[in-house]
Write a structure and sequence with these properties.
The complex is a heterodimer of chains A (269) and B (196).
Chain A (H helix, E strand, L loop, with lengths): L2 H9 L12 H23 L8 H14 L1 H33 L1 H15 L3 H12 L3 H25 L3 H9 L4 H39 L4 H10 L3 H30 L1 H4 L1
Helix pairs in contact in A: 3-11, 4-5, 4-7, 4-9, 4-10, 5-7, 6-7, 6-9, 7-9, 9-10, 9-11, 10-11
Chain B lengths: L2 E10 L2 E11 L4 E5 L6 H8 L7 E6 L3 E4 L11 H9 L3 H10 L15 H14 L4 E5 L7 H18 L2 E5 L3 H7 L2 E5 L4 E3 L1
Helix pairs in contact in B: 2-3, 2-4, 3-4, 4-5
Chain lengths: 269, 196
């Protein structure tokens, strides 16, 4: 047997013949260009920039808003709220979810609470937080986090339930320390669930942050959308919405995807 | 005496799985535990390993315990070297030596998924070897392997035990494996336990 034959089954490469597939970034660029073209065609067909402005109307306004500094101020305010709510919801949801997944007794008692909070409408939580805590930053972050914690908890509970019993036995027999077990046994098994939760969480959180800002903050993308909505300025509504989607795409591409690739390096080896 | 076991009873619900089981294993001894499936061999090993504390009786385990499981039970997300280093606490040089001892020299950087099943079994044995155990527990480590690999692993395990001389409890259902490795044999049956 030659070396090539011996190693072939492990190589996991695609078929040798046929066109080479485009790299991931190129697919992304082409796909997003298609979306832009689709928008342009819709705007052209509607032919009313008051209702649906095309890219040629939105991008100059976007550039002007960026040049004036207003865009960065409001994007920054929204992003900071997203980061705070995300950190709070992920850490609390992770601990709660893992505990509920590992301790059936605790799960029995807390499961009805989880179902209650999962089904509590986001709008109700936001309104109640503003009424109870006041129209301030704390209320905004708490409202978003409360909306998100149940989903993180439910997803992490599933991750904890799928933990390997034999690996945990092995760690026990060999006397691995609690920190080593957390780092080398628990977290690597939870990593795919964490990545999925982070991704789902981030997109949900920024949408809720916008509602919070729409209802009761004086800065941020949601506030600006509210303002321009009242003036029926569709172009500016699109300027702010598109800007923040761009920010989220950048976070996904530059932070989440590399982290995920790092966590699954051993699978691709 | 490294290992002293005195189990009055171990039950799962109403069913008594182990009863009146008393034995000792000294350093350098290999006790084979034989018996049909479901008779409680693995339960006994779990009790000795400290994984099951829910039994009536006493257990005295002196020193460090290491175990070779039925499956390799490796961390697939850590390299072969890290699998030894992180579980046993030995340094990289000692881990390399343990890998070389089981014929895996130079494979330290590979993940378990990049090793063949035979190599994964060797890595699992290397982990127990690196731990330098006072008590070594073997839970049917050669089950579902082809005969050539069983012979290979038996020889390797035999030499590792001869070198470190731990008190060994070897659970198996293969009499030939027990005859090869064990200094004493114990047969578990559903009715009674016999110590030969």
């Amino acid at each position: 047997m030659t070396l090539r034959e011996a190693t072939a089954p492990r190589a996991r490469r695609g078929p040798v013949s046929g066109p080479r597939p485009l790299p991931g970034w190129a697919v992304r660029v082409v796909s997003l260009s298609g979306l832009l073209a689709f928008w342009w065609v819709l705007a052209w067909a509607k032919a009313d920039p008051m209702v649906l402005p095309g890219p040629q109307a939105v991008f100059p306004r976007l550039a002007a808003e960026a040049a004036s500094g207003a865009l960065w101020l409001h994007l920054g305010a929204t992003l900071w709220r997203v980061v705070q709510a995300f950190a709070a919801a992920m850490s609390l949801g992770l601990v709660l979810g893992v505990l509920m997944g590992l301790l059936p007794q605790l799960n029995r008692w807390l499961d009805p609470w989880l179902v209650f909070f999962l089904n509590l409408p986001a709008l109700v939580v936001i309104v109640l937080c503003f009424l109870w805590i006041g129209l301030n930053e704390t209320a905004a972050i708490v409202a978003v986090a409360i909306n998100k914690i149940p989903l993180v908890t439910a997803m992490m509970r599933e991750g904890a339930r799928a933990l390997s019993g034999p690996l945990s036995d092995m760690a026990h027999v060999f006397g691995m320390s609690p920190v080593a077990r957390l780092r080398h046994i628990l977290l690597p098994q939870l990593a795919p669930h964490l990545a999925a939760t982070a991704r789902a969480g981030l997109s949900l959180i920024w949408k809720i942050v916008l509602v919070v800002e729409f209802l009761g903050r004086g800065q941020g993308v949601g506030f600006k959308i509210h303002l321009h909505f009242q003036m029926f300025d569709v172009t500016m509504v699109m300027v702010y919405a598109l800007s923040f989607i761009a920010v989220m795409l950048a976070i996904e591409t530059l932070i989440l995807q590399p982290l995920e690739a790092r966590a699954r390096r051993w699978r691709d080896a | 005496m490294s290992l002293q076991v005195a189990i009055r009873s171990k039950r799962f619900g109403e069913t008594i799985v182990l009863r009146d089981l008393v034995f000792q294993v000294a350093r350098g001894e290999v006790l084979a535990v034989l018996g049909p499936s479901g008779v409680g061999k693995s339960t006994l090993l779990r009790i000795i390993a400290g994984l099951d504390g829910d039994f009536e009786g006493q257990l005295r385990c002196e020193g460090r315990v290491a175990m070779v499981f039925q499956e390799p039970t490796l961390m697939p997300w850590r390299s072969a070297l890290d699998n030894l280093r992180l579980t046993t606490g030995v340094d990289a040089r000692q881990s390399e030596a343990a890998l070389a001892r089981v014929g895996l020299a130079g494979k330290g950087a590979l993940y378990p998924g990049q090793l063949s099943l035979g190599q994964q079994r060797r890595l699992s044995l290397a982990r127990a070897y690196a731990a330098k155990p006072d008590i070594l527990l073997l839970d049917e480590p050669f089950v579902s392997l082809d005969p050539a690999l069983v012979a290979d692993m038996l020889a390797l395990t035999e030499s590792v035990i001869a070198e470190q001389r731990p008190a060994t409890v070897f659970v198996t259902h293969a009499k030939a494996e027990a005859d090869r490795l064990a200094t004493r044999q114990m047969v578990l049956s559903a009715q009674e336990q016999t110590c030969l």
